[in-house]
Amino acid sequence: MPAYGAIEAGGTKFICGVGTGPEDLQTIEIPTTTPEETVTAAVAWMRGHAPDVIGIGSFGPADINPESPAWGYITSTPKSGWRNFNFAGAVHQALGVPVRFNSDVNAAVLGESKWGAARGVSNCLYLTIGTGIGGGAILSGRLLHGLSHPEMGHIRIPHDSFPGVCPFHGNCLEGLASGPAMEARWGKPAQELPADHPAWALEAQYLAAAIVNFTCTFSPELVLLGGGVMHQSALFPLIRSEVELLLAGYIAIPDIKPPGLGRRAGVLGALALSMG
Amino acid sequence: MPAYGAIEAGGTKFICGVGTGPEDLQTIEIPTTTPEETVTAAVAWMRGHAPDVIGIGSFGPADINPESPAWGYITSTPKSGWRNFNFAGAVHQALGVPVRFNSDVNAAVLGESKWGAARGVSNCLYLTIGTGIGGGAILSGRLLHGLSHPEMGHIRIPHDSFPGVCPFHGNCLEGLASGPAMEARWGKPAQELPADHPAWALEAQYLAAAIVNFTCTFSPELVLLGGGVMHQSALFPLIRSEVELLLAGYIAIPDIKPPGLGRRAGVLGALALSMG
Asked: Which among A14, A129, B100, B257 has most CB atoms closer than 10 A?
């Protein structure tokens, strides 16, 4: 059996892994700083495990079109240093093995479909709410995909007067409901806000509006919510009742729950990607 | 060659047609009142043309899942009399020919893809803005589809204090930007509002927010805007500049234009559906 390598490239940290699945996976975490530092460290660790193929689930926007000359690049990210970085090319050049490249959330939904909470589910949405907000979906067994991968974090939803923190759009979903947005609004990191803080009811409203929009758009049966902000498990019942309220019986309410692979959803997704 | 029949079932009128394409199509219009009256009239006209198969593009929500016991039904529509109506069954029973059943906008995007503005385009969204708002999309040549067909008219977008007119959701997109919403807000039908009326700038904002949301969600290259409200062609440049402003260079802006099949997009879509 070939050795599989996985890189979950997040805005805060990389998780690199080698193995064959949830029962057989070694991982390492590397902070996300510059491409030089972070990718060099990831490649050095990978080299010690000699994978035959590597899957990368990357933060974005990224060019995942195999016919594009910029395939494998991170494109218009606000993260300084990473814009127009040839990520897949750098990893391929350093290790000399095939690289499979997709968005972090497309990888995560693939992993959940293969090993996690979406096994046997035809239509599943995976959302991550952390440093940024992103979404990937599988519909009838295929990744939702148009001209480019989804950028679900940047939809517009009803909101109050808070200006938001997205450097491109201000108060888009990510600008209102990501971890940094919560910190900017409430003056402390989300993980320090107690479960009964009003921050969570508002956060649930924003995430419910987003889930309603995605449900009206492509009708998932299952919505998996991962990422650092979702570690506050009190959010789940708040979001479920808000989605029910907003849909008002018009269409079926999707099941809403945490990823089955927990904090390893991203790296196992990248592993699923490497396995093709 | 078999004779093809088409029914575009809209909230205000039915357009029935028989033929083989844009150059060969006879049509008739029937006002949408009750299922008994309207479907009886449609079936009577069809009988005179003896089609071998009929495509129905229906307003919704409708059950288009071929494995469902309620396949061919209109389900939770606010339109009185039509809820839980076995539409495909009634037509099949009356005419004794196979019936292909889908949403009006799924049919329209199929027709545009076959004969209209979306020929050769892999990723296209069709939105209709009229009595209601609905959307259908083709991605990589296949209809966008999850557990059910899209209900894009019911997404939530930023809005002002107008309560909206959707009987289910108040100020969802349809509640804010459909023809009846414009009439409720401005006190006269949309077609009576002059091109320089402030109604159109606000309408463009709402439709642009929706297009941005769909673009962030599934990345169409082309967005076709049909329906009665879009007969105000001054809307197109207003919408285009608002979409550009909202996306702020983050991702590619889709081309935004009218359907190539004009007011026949719906009935030709139903015809495309009947041709399989």
From this structure: A129
pLDDT at site A263: 87
Q: What's the whole-number mean pLDDT along residues A247-251? A: 92
Kindly state the helix (H) or strand (E) to which residue A20 belongs, with its residue range.
strand A13-21
Is there a contact between B213 and A61 if contact means CB atoms under 8 Å apart? Answer: no
Q: Is the peptide bond before B61 cis (omega within 30 degrees of 0)?
A: yes
Report the mean per-residue pLDDT for chain B: 95
**DSSP string of B6-23, one letter each residue:** EEEE-SSEEEEEEEEETT
3-state secondary structure of B88: helix
Q: Do B123 and A147 touch (CB under 8 A)?
A: yes
- pLDDT band (50, 70, 90) for residue B1: confident
**Has residue B15 got a pLDDT over 90?**
yes
Interface of A with B in 4-33 (CB under 8 A): none
Ordered DSSP codes for A66-91: TTSTTTTEE-S-SSTTTTTEEHHHHH
d(CA A216, CA B147): 11
Q: Name all contacts of B47-50 with Cβ < 8 Å and 24+ positions apart.
A: B47/B94, B47/B95, B49/B3, B49/B5, B49/B18, B50/B3
How high is the ipTM of this complex? 0.93
- For residue B72, what pLDDT is reported? 97
DSSP A240: H
What pLDDT does B263 receive? 87
Q: How many beta-carbon pairs under 8 angstroms link A with B? A: 142
Residue-wise pLDDT tens digits, B76-93 = 887 889 999 999 999 999
Tokens of A153: 């974090």
Q: Is A220 on the interface with B (CB under 8 A)?
A: yes
Verify whether the Cβ–Cβ distance B220 to A146 is below 8 Å.
yes
Mean pLDDT of chain A: 95
Task: Work out the angle at residue A148's Cα, subtended by the Cα atoms of residues A144 and A152, and round it to the nearest 5 degrees.
Answer: 65
Contact across the interface for B76 and A209, Cβ inside 8 Å: no
Distance (Å, whole) CA A94 – CA A48:
13
Is the CB of residue B150 less than 8 Å away from at least one CB of chain A?
yes
CA–CA dist A11, A1 (Å, integer): 32
A49-A54-A58 Cα angle (round to 5): 120
Nearest residue on chain B to A168, judged by CA atoms? B248
Q: What is the mean pLDDT of residues B255-266?
A: 94
Asked if residues B21 and B271 have their Cβ atoms less than 8 Å apart, the reply is: yes
Residue B141 CB coordination number (10 Å) = 10
- Chain B's closest residue to A248, CA to CA, is B168
Strands B53-58 and B99-103: parallel
Q: What is the pLDDT of residue B12?
A: 86
Taken in order A124, A75, A7, A88, the sign of the CA dihedral is positive
User: Cβ(B118)–Cβ(B99) under 8 Å?
Assistant: no
To the nearest whole Å, the CA of A40 is away from the closest chain B CA by 28
Q: Are A101 and A64 in contact (CB under 8 A)?
A: yes
- pTM metric for this prediction: 0.94
The answer to whether A263 faces chain B, any CB pair under 8 Å, is: no
